[in-house]
Amino acid sequence: MNVHDRVGETSEILPHAARVFEILGIDYCRHRERSLRDAFAAAGVDADEASELLRPGSTLPSSEPPADLRKASLREITAFVVQNHHRRARHMLVNLTLLAAEAASGHEQIRPLEEWIARIAREFVPHMRREEQYLFPYIDSIERERTMSSSRARLKLSGVR
Q1: Distance (Å, rounded) from C-alpha 159 to C-alpha 26?
Q2: Distance, CA of 159 to CA of 85 (rounded, Å)
Q3: Nearest Cα to 19, choosing from 29, 31, 9, 11?
Q4: CA dihedral angle for residue 85, residue 87, residue 90, residue 96, rounded to 10 degrees
Q5: How far apart are the first and last CA of the chain?
Q6: Which one, of 73, 70, 53, 71, lies nearest residue 61 by Cα?
Q7: 3-state class of 29 per DSSP?
Q8: What is the pLDDT of residue 141?
């Protein structure tokens, strides 16, 4: 599988791809001729991460926290949240959804649990994406503005004699 493959073909070849696409908000029916790269971009999903989620048995991504979170910039903290918490949460939600679907296929009494897990994944993944697309860049801009204001204040003060 590569990013030039078509969404429709991928959903037919990989048994779990349709579930992953649903969680990521990728339409694999009406836009089946879209390349994976275009589908990922349209859904606002990182292509490397989505490709990893489509690989069966992939391992959880790891990330190192900033050396001292108390001294870390807001940008470092938001990057850490995305890399360590969001990516790992998406990975776990996809795996949990796939496991629940597999269990429910043989045990009808588990179906409500499987539907509940799938609903949580479908709601939580877009929530994280909105944080990454809107909230975290806004936080980063606040920090940039604070840094610029501080620099301007120092420049003004340095000119005063």
Answers
A1: 55
A2: 45
A3: 11
A4: -80
A5: 66
A6: 53
A7: coil
A8: 92
Q: Which residue has the tokens 């796939």?
A: 98
Residue with tokens 């190192």: 64
Both tokens of 16, joined, read: 């779990």
Q: Residue holding tokens 């204040």? A: 153
Question: Where in the chain are the domains?
Answer: 1-58, 60-161
Tell whether the torsion through CA atoms of 99, 91, 129 and 32 is positive or negative.
negative
Q: What is the DSSP letter of 108?
A: G
Per-residue pLDDT of 37-78, as tens digits, reads 999 999 888 888 888 888 876 776 666 766 787 888 888 889
Half-sphere exposure of 130 (CA within 13 A, CB side): 7
Amino acid found at 60: L
Q: pLDDT of 133-142, one tens digit each? A: 999 999 999 9
